DNA sequence: CGCTAAACGAGACGGTACGTCGTGTCTTCTG
DNA sequence: CAGAAGACACGACGTACCGTCTCGTTTAGCG
């Protein structure tokens, strides 16, 4: 019937070494300048081993991106949307101020632009991040801190848009002040109604 | 003194041939696969002539894109911030929905990430776009449609952040609805004060 | 221990293809005009393969010369120095009248002048040729057809000097007459003594 | 009369600067490595000025060679062929032992091989040198120091053959001993007749 | 335990494109 | 209007990687 297997098994250590080296290399030189030759040497692996398991540079990068894009931001729960958001953005922005992190994110974005194959895992990563923020907003909506019919996806994109825009261009910082203003803006943009001045 | 110049001048025809060929080639094979060798041959130009005037593939591409990317958005002036913004974003978003345009912008961004050397003209381009929007917002501030001390740069980044975030990822459209919501969000985020109810 | 070798071994066929192509190319276009690019293409080999094994154009040419410069002239043995020499020179000169041969020799000489790196194998080749003639002369000396203390190296240089001088300049032919005269001149220059006839 | 001439006259100094630089450059780097670009820069001259007056690198080299190759050997006149020749060869060989001289001669030869265009002035130079020696031999023939019908051209080639052969290869010196042996060899090879004892 | 077979590090292979340099031609400006 | 400066189209230079192909070695299951 089916021959189960013969010969040496795949060396998992080699696989990990390649992925780790890929992440480091991507951060270092970007998607352009990313070389299988260099990757293999950095990983201490033969070129053929790379080609045996990944069909292309894009595939390695894609897997590297997918593997690394796991880190999550803890969702705060202070009971009020404004403070929840402010805290969430502060944590997020502080992470993004780390040059290594922003560098990695930028190069992941560039890779995603250059090659659609790498885009898929990257987009999934982004979708996960959006989902985090959305659940925060949903909590606010459930507490009626938002007008009915508020477009949560829009607000999410607004928030991550600021993060990425400043992160990619670097013309202005992602500091605590920006986090506070962003939280306030989201709250203002989703405020329930202009009529009844709030009390509570 | 100043030596005015000696020797043959730059051949403008060659420059144009290169830029034209670059645009065609970019559309044909994309940023990857874009070869200086092929570019020179297509343009009927020596490779050296390309390298003489552009430091890198990215630089040629940047200029090619920049040459074509002259489209300016007319600043509407309806007398009210909300409608001005809505109109501005609608026009902007509609342009960005063109696959060719968004593709060029994405590749400009990727090139800017991969190669900081090319980033300068791109950042200037972005700064110009921000300045357009900012002048619109300033008009609103002058009309006291905004709270004192509103951070116009923050609002600008918020707006372009949404544009770029959706443009780069493509997970949701930049349609008229988004434009309207964005205008409303900016207005809400900069509203003069919750205390004094409006009196139209 | 000793690492025996790792990785694929050198492809001997490629080496031979390069050398063969080098010989042909050298004959065709000379040392100038000899292009590594063309050599690689003619040999059906990657340029890198050439550069991997030879440090320079000169080195390839040197090896090509060394490989090809094996053809030996049979040493005649008629029992008398004069006829031995005459026969040897006739054979040698006739070979040298072939335009292809003389062309190759000239270009070898030029290469040896231009680039000392190529000189070594060429000089060895020349030394081999001198050794052939010298053994002929030694036989004559052993038969006491020469004066004691005759400088065989000088005679050898005299003979090959004529060959090369005419070969390089081409102002006069290397024909049978020249061969005969050369043989006679060597015999005269090495004659044992003015034994019987002359006095003084 | 004469047209007063308009505009700048041809700069003879530029021509000389080129030739001088060519000689120096040729000695320095040989025919290979000889660059018009470098020549123009060394001469402090525009490339076009070189091309205006010489059709090719070979032509410049040819003229440089022709200009410099003027040095003549004084013809000795001792009354006897053997001593005349010995003196002539000693003088000639001593000049040729100068590394600068031999280097220049070798590169001239190489240039002549590589590029037939440069060969003409070089061959003329060689012909002049042969003519010198031939006139010496003719004097000996006139004095009946030679057999009737001796091939003077052959003897000339024999002599210069030795000079060039040793000069080009450098395996043995062109010293006074060699000069003496060469003179003796020529005398022996042209001796009037073994039978008839001399009767001066 | 010995055999077969696959995976491994290493690295040579035929290629393509790189960015630089020199060619010979052609402006352009200065003296 | 000759001459320097230098841009031009062309093409070879020597290098870096591409993706494929041996090599000899290591490691696993099967008989």
From TrEMBL, chains A, B, C, D:
Residues 35-54 bind DNA. Pfam families: TetR_C_11, TetR_N. The keyword Transcription applies. Residues 12-72 form the HTH tetR-type domain. InterPro entries: Homeodomain-like_sf (IPR009057), HTH-type_TetR-like_transc_reg (IPR050109), HTH_TetR (IPR001647), Tet_transcr_reg_TetR-rel_C_sf (IPR036271), TetR_C (IPR011075). It comes from Catenulispora subtropica. This is TetR/AcrR family transcriptional regulator. Keywords: DNA-binding, Transcription, Transcription regulation. Gene3D superfamilies: Homeodomain-like, Tetracycline Repressor, domain 2.
């Amino acid at each position: 019937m089916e021959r189960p297997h013969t010969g040496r098994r795949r060396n998992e250590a080699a696989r990990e070494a390649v992925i780790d080296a890929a992440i480091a290399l991507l951060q270092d030189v970007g998607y352009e300048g990313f070389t299988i030759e260099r990757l293999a040497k950095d990983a201490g692996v033969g070129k053929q081993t790379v080609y045996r398991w990944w069909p292309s540079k894009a595939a390695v990068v894609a897997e590297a991106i997918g593997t690394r894009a796991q880190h999550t931001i803890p969702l705060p729960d202070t009971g009020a949307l404004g403070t929840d958001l402010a805290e969430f953005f502060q944590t997020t922005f502080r992470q993004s101020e780390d040059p290594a992190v922003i560098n990695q994110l930028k190069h992941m974005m560039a890779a995603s632009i250059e090659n659609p194959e790498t885009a898929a895992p990257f987009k999934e990563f982004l979708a996960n991040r959006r989902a985090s923020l959305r659940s925060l907003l949903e909590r606010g909506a459930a507490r009626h801190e938002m007008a009915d019919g508020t477009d949560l996806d829009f607000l999410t994109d607004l928030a991550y848009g600021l993060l990425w825009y400043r992160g990619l261009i670097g013309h202005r910082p992602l500091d605590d002040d920006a986090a506070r203003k962003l939280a306030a803006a989201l709250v203002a943009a989703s405020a329930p109604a202009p009529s009844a001045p709030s009390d509570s």
